[in-house]
Design goal:
Elements lengths: L12 H8 L10 E2 L8 H6 L24 E2 L1 E3 L9 E3 L5 H9 L21 H14 L12 E9 L6 H18 L2 E6 L7 E9 L2
Antiparallel strand pairs: 1-2, 3-4, 5-7, 6-7
């Protein structure tokens, strides 16, 4: 089943505090609240579920009795749809905001992504096509190359037969939480290991 927008999950004291203490954000970074989306990591890995947060044509209902869906500026940038793993778009410059939103479309386009050439394994054409379209829509003009530097990190690994998957998962979540808190991370993606226990993970960073 394809991922879709659902009813919001109950808010936590943390999210309630964020809503009470934040000013209205610009509409270009207004997102569907992350609690409206699934928490299934597979949907974010292979079906670009995070793109469902994007409000490509945000409008104000003409009928004042209609309540708009919950919104936020915290973007899902990994297979983890949990508060500590979200990226607040308000902390980014316009170029990084645009790229972070475009990377919600990121997903593999071939089954052997763990070993295939990196640039041929993902839907980069779709990501950059969307990026160009959104930049034009928001009136953003890219500066000189040195003003918009982004970095890609690729991790390739082979798990041993006795690797503790549960511990690795916990360490992965903790590492991502630190990376988000440290700033600069725009996307973190990892796939599933293949029949020979080979895997791939990747990150996209901006300069701080």
């Amino acid at each position: 089943m394809s991922p879709s927008i659902t009813s919001p999950r109950p808010s936590t004291p943390e999210t309630q505090h964020q809503r009470l203490n934040s000013s209205p954000p610009p509409t270009n970074i207004l997102l569907n609240h992350h609690t409206l989306l699934t928490t299934n990591p597979e949907a974010f890995k292979f079906q670009a579920a995070a793109s469902l947060q994007l409000r490509l044509n945000p409008t104000i209902p003409n009928d004042s009795s209609l309540i708009p869906p919950p919104s936020d500026t915290n973007l899902i940038i990994s297979p983890y749809n949990t508060p500590h793993h979200l990226l607040d778009l308000q902390t980014l410059n316009p170029a990084s905001q645009l790229l972070a939103k475009a990377l919600t479309l990121f997903h593999p386009i071939r089954l052997d992504y763990a070993t295939a050439p990196y640039t041929e394994s993902f839907n980069w054409d779709s990501v950059f096509g969307f990026l160009r379209k959104q930049a034009k829509s928001e009136g953003y003009t890219w500066g000189k190359r040195h003003e918009n530097l982004f970095y890609v990190v690729v991790f390739r690994s082979t798990l041993t037969a006795d690797a503790d998957g549960e511990k690795l998962h916990v360490l992965d979540e903790m590492s991502l939480r630190e990376a988000v808190a440290g700033g600069g991370l725009l996307k973190y993606w990892f796939g599933n290991v293949d029949g020979e226990r080979r895997g791939l993970a990747t990150c996209e960073f901006s300069t701080l």
